Every structure is written in C-alpha cells, then in structure tokens.
Amino acid sequence: MEKFKGYQCSLCGKEYTPGEVQYTCPQDGGNLNVVLDYEAIRQKYHSEDITSSTDYSLWRYLPLLPVADPGGQGTPLRQAGWTPTYCPPALAKQLGMSQLWVKDEGRNPSASFKDRASAMVVARARQIHAEVVVTASTGNAGAALAGMSAAVGQKAVIFAPRTAPPAKIAQLLIYGAQVILVDDNYDAAFDLTIEAAHEFGWYCRNTGYNAFTAEGKKTAAFEIWENVLLTERNLNRPLVVFIPVGDGNIISGIHKGFKDLQALGWLEQMPRLIGVQAEGSAAIANAYFAHNEDVHPVEAHTIADSISVDLPRDGVRGVRAATQTGGAYLTVKDEDILKGIAALGKVGIFAEPAGATAYAGLVKALQEGLVTTDDPVLVLNTGSGLKDIKAAMNAVPEAPVIKPTLEAVKQLFHV
Questions:
Q1: CB under 8 Å to 26, separation ≥6 — which residues?
Q2: Of 61, 106, 118, 129, whose CB is crowded by the most CB atoms within 10 A?
Q3: Residue 269 DSSP one-character state
Q4: 0.85 cut: is pTM over it?
Q5: Which strands sit side by side in the sheet containing 100-104, from one edge to the other?
Q6: What is the pLDDT of residues 213-265, one digit of tens each?
Q7: Based on C-alpha coordinates, what's the Rg of the chain?
C-alpha cells in the first residue's frame, strides 16, 4: 500500500506528487504538508491495530507514516518515541489541578523531542539513498540527527552556532558527525545549511524546511491520543496541551498528528494547543497577538536556546495550530522558565529550559484564566536538563560546602 500521496503547500494550496518537490513550495516558499491516503489507511487498518502493537517506539505508528520500515532493529533509531507520560500528584496539588500530565521527551535516545524528526528524516534518507544528511541546530536537532545517523551508519553534517551549550556540542562530536561551528546565530547556520545542501547534493533535515520533520514530530500526538485520550474516559473537556515553541515545527507537527487521527475517524475531540514562547523570542506569538499569520523576525535572546529563533521557519503553521484548535499563545520571562525547571525537578522531572517554558506557560495561563484548574492539561517537556547544566544551576541555590565533620553538619541543619 502506498500511503504517501504527495505534498500540499500550506500557503497557496498547490499539490505536488512525491517526486516533484523535495523541500518547500516552488511557487511561494511555503511549508509543505505531507498528504497521506487516508482512505487506503482506513481500509487496511483499524485503531486497534495500532493500540495493540507491542512495538513501544514511534515505529508502532508506521501505518500512519510516509516512510517504509527503515530497519535498524536493535539500534537507537528503533527506540525513539514512546516516552513516559507522568501524572505527578504533588505538582497537580500545588497548582490546584484535578488532571495534569507531563510528557517527558528527555527520555528519548539523545534526550530530546528532536529524535522523532531525525528518526523520520534518516528513514527517508535511506529510502531515497541519500549519502549525507545535513542540518542546522542549536544542539538538540543536531544531536538527534547525529545519534540516529550513527545508529545505522548514515553520514551526517551539523552546522551549529558557536554559542550552543557545550553539552550539546559534545553529543554531536561523540556521535561522530562532522560538526561545523558557525560564528553567528542559528538563523545564519540555517541559511548556510541550505546553501551547502544545494551545492553538494546533501539531504537537508532543517526544521520547517523538510516536510518529514513534522511527520516525525506528529508521533507525539499519537502517543498522547493512546496514553491519555483513549485511557482517560472521564475527560469532559478538551485536553489542553502546552508546547514550547521556537521554529513552530513541534506545535505544527503535533497539530498534524491530531488532524491525521481526525481524518481517520479515530479522534473524537481535537485538543486545544497552546504555544509558549520566551518573551525574548516571540515572533510567532507576536503574529498570534496581532490576529494574523504575518510572522516577522525578532532579535531573539533567551536562556532557552532550543527555542531561540529570530525568524521561525514554520511560523504560519505554528500560528494555525493554536487558532484552528481553540488554543492560544503565551510568552513567559526567562526568570519564570528557571522557576519552571526547579518546579519540575521537585517532582523528579529534569527539564531543559525549553521544556520548562511549557510549564511556565501553564502557570501563567492559570493566573490569567486562559485555562482553569478543572481543565485536563498535558505539559510537554521537550528535553533533558542535562542538555544545559548552566541554566539548571541558575535555577536552584548553590550546594553548601562544609568541613568533613559531624559538627559542620549539625551547624548546617541548626541542630
């Protein structure tokens, strides 16, 4: 069965066959949506075929993905996805909420959400026999591509801004990718990556440029459907999902996943998607606040490097993910992001700044009445706090240093 029918431009609506285009719309540069043959999928599969699968990774959703089985059994490529969804009672009690979940993407093989997109792109690269896959990244996307590529022997080249956190650069190097540090920001690295891909014939993974990235990210929506929407039968309101937003590709990918499920008749009620951006990197939120889809670049500056973007490359679909689901956008301060890291840590979830941004958005939404304590809410943590130790250390008090005596311990605890 050929599930992958082609592409449709998100701006002009023009449709293309799979071989006509590879990245964005030739007419207007719009992001392309992957078009699946929903009727063929419905005829061959039922939802129970998915939910009864014993493949506990994103590849359990292969019938709903536009790629063939990539192989790589027994490797990290086959372990991406199926991350835990926690229901932390202490956090819910602190916020006064009755139903709260946190989905922890830090448990992916390279410790971030970006493994989903990279696994999909590597699968596509193998399908089209691409020799080299290249991407621009502040760290997470590159680490994910490097790790997924290393798992199956795929060559990878990563362009990263020289200011990316050292822990993330270390991952890139350890996985054996060709790492090139750019003496500029992410947006400059993004543009250079596209130039290099065209010049050398490399397959470009860039977020919001390659349509298959959203197809990987949509698998998180499938897991939310399975682990929350199908199991929690007492949801009397739409689930509200808080998502950190930089380029806009995660929120648009999750939106695409829910739309796929609706098209198949497997999703009863569309969740509300709330995008959360740092105040210092709020290009998509600004467009939402202006009630339009005109996403203008900003001069981004935030401690949440994973979502620090001047010009979002998937901004229009990022806006639509909120407007078309009855959701919204919020912006949060860096100091509130640090508070979010500490709050999640106290219930055993170690979040990087981008992930804590989503939690900070929930706190602000409750304060402003955008959601109530009776709404069922899921917060998406997009990566492990080990990705950015400097930010983590700024979120908590320093550990005291004492002499190695019991008396010193007694003085510390005032006993």
A1: none
A2: 118
A3: S
A4: yes
A5: 85-86, 100-104, 377-381, 240-244, 272-278, 328-332
A6: 999 999 999 999 999 999 987 788 999 999 999 999 999 999 999 999 999 99
A7: 21
